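**Fold in tokens:**
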Amino acid sequence: MWLRATLLLLLLLLLFRTGQGNQGCSGTLKESCPFQEVYTRTRDIAEIPKSVAPIITEMFFVDTSIVDIGQGAFANMSNLVKIVFLNSKIKRVEAGAFENLENLVDLEITGAELGDLPVGTFRSLDRLRKVNLRDSRVRRIEKGLFEGLGDLEEIYLHRNEIASLPGGVFDGLPKLSLLHLGWNQISNVSRDLFKHLTQLKTLRLQNNRVGSLGEGTLDSLQQLVELNLESNRLQTLLPNLLSRLVNLEKILLDKNSIEVLPHETFLGLRKVKQLRMASNHLKAFPPLGAMQLLEELDLSRNRISSLENLAGASLPSLKTLKLQGNHLETL
């Protein structure tokens, strides 16, 4: 009886320490973490191992020689919750590569040469919450690539070579809150592209080739907090493009070719804290209305000659106002 009680106590103590250790190192790459399997240049491998110890929940591949992830590559590792490939040499990912990973919530492949990803790449990843494919030379995203990922919250596709996005590619993602498409070659955004992203809070499209956004393109994004369109080719915005985005706090429109903005552009956006329109071709600025929370307004490096509309605005929280590089004669 005494022996059984002692063994039970030791088992409970081990489980407690295991839980404590997991909380201390889970999520980020840390040396000597018992729940992480880490491969690096000094511990290099050329293919995915067939299995890992049951205690392993996270795998990191940093600058390894792996170039191919075949179907079912992780089939014997159902305990994994996170897989990260950093500075990878991966050139091909087969459909079903991550099958049987029913607990996976975080998948990252960066620095790769992926080109095109087949539909079915993320098949059976019902609990996946984050996909990061940054800087991986992705050229095309097929409709259906994200099908079945109803729990997905964040998609990072920035610093790739994506020129267009098919309609419906982001359908079926009711929980998506962040979409990063910056630093690509996107020139056209279809009207229905974001139609079903009703919970999206962050949309980043900076450093693309977008010349215009059609009527209704952003209407469904009523929870949006951050809109980043800087470094594109915009010349104006439609009068009601932003009218339904009543939760916007950050609007970034720097480094476009905007010459004129309609009178209604910013009216009704009462939660905006940061509005940046530096390095455009603006000659005048539309009314801001009652932006009671606005803290930063950047209109520098434009062609503005009058602050008439700005003078009539109610901006009690304004802390930073940048006007340098304009054609102002008096303030």
Observations:
- Residues 164-330 form a domain with the Leucine-rich repeat, LRR (right-handed beta-alpha superhelix) fold (CATH 3.80.10.10).
